[in-house]
Amino acid sequence: MYGASERDIDQIAEYADSTIRQALVRTGSLAPIAGRRGLNAWLYDKWGNRGNAIYTFLGSLLTIAVSGLLAWGLDEPLVFPSLGATAFLFFETPMAEVASIRNTVIGHGVGTAVAFVWLNVFGLVGEPSAIAAGFTADRVACVALSLGFTGFILRLTRAAHPPAGATTVIVSVGLLTEWDEVLILMSGVFLLSASAWALNRALGVPAPLWTAAKY
Questions:
Q1: How far apart are CA 67 and CA 209, in angstroms?
Q2: How many CB atoms lie within 10 A of CB 30?
Q3: How far is CA 178 from CA 82, 123, 171, in A?
Q4: What ranges do the domains of the chain cover?
């Protein structure tokens, strides 16, 4: 493929820019974000990487602010630690498969579900969290197996999303143990994904509605 192996293309597409699958096949070289316009294009044209830094700052700030304000207004924990990393990905590498809505939703969903399975296996549902009660052998096994299986499943499904590793740890250490809490968690994921997509589009990045990957 014009000097690039399929593995090279997969890695670049997953963590940098999914449009590279087509760009490398056509031209054999890395291409900038295709269709970049508006504020995003202006910042990059004027300041280069510093412009990208400003864009990441603005996007992360505004997206988390929206989620935080809704969490405040609804009195629900719609913002949790791993969403910070997700927000960062949406604006640092907005065209990467790893930052797509597909990978985000599947990643956090798998991380949560896997952790709940292992919480039930070890009889830890409803038990005090490891933060409150300390770690036991069962809790260590639960956390380790949750993280390992989350990574395994996400790699198999080509849905890598590193922040999902934090989500599965949050659940497996016992910070979330009820199904209504899981619904709130996933509501936060959908809210952040939708607002980040809308903001990227408004500011000039042609972020895909679901994913730009070809599976």
A1: 19
A2: 12
A3: 18, 13, 10
A4: 1-31, 43-202
User: Distance between CA 194 and CA 17 in Å, rounded?
Assistant: 20
* Number of H-type helices and E-type strands within the chain: 10, 0
Q: ∠166-208-156 over CA atoms, to 5°?
A: 45
CA distance 93 to 88: 8
For residue 40, give the amino acid letter: N
111 closest CA partner among 184, 186, 195, 181: 186
Contact status, residue 80 vs residue 116, Cβ threshold 8 Å:
no
Angle of helix 101-121 relative to helix 137-156, nearest 10 degrees?
Answer: 150
**pLDDT tens by residue, 1-16:** 445 566 555 655 566 5
For residues 64 and 84, the answer to whether their CB atoms sit within 8 Å is yes
pLDDT digits (tens, 9 = 90+) for 50-59: 998 999 999 9
Contacts of 84 (CB under 8 A, 6+ apart): 60, 64, 163
**Mean pLDDT taken over the chain:** 87
Q: What is the pTM of this model?
A: 0.84
Q: Tell me the C-alpha distance between 142 and 136, whole Å.
A: 10
State how far the Cα of 44 lies from the Cα of 35, in Å rounded to an integer. 13
Contact 90, 99 (CB under 8 A): yes
In angstroms, rounded to a whole number, what is the distance separating the alpha carbons of residues 175 and 130? 8
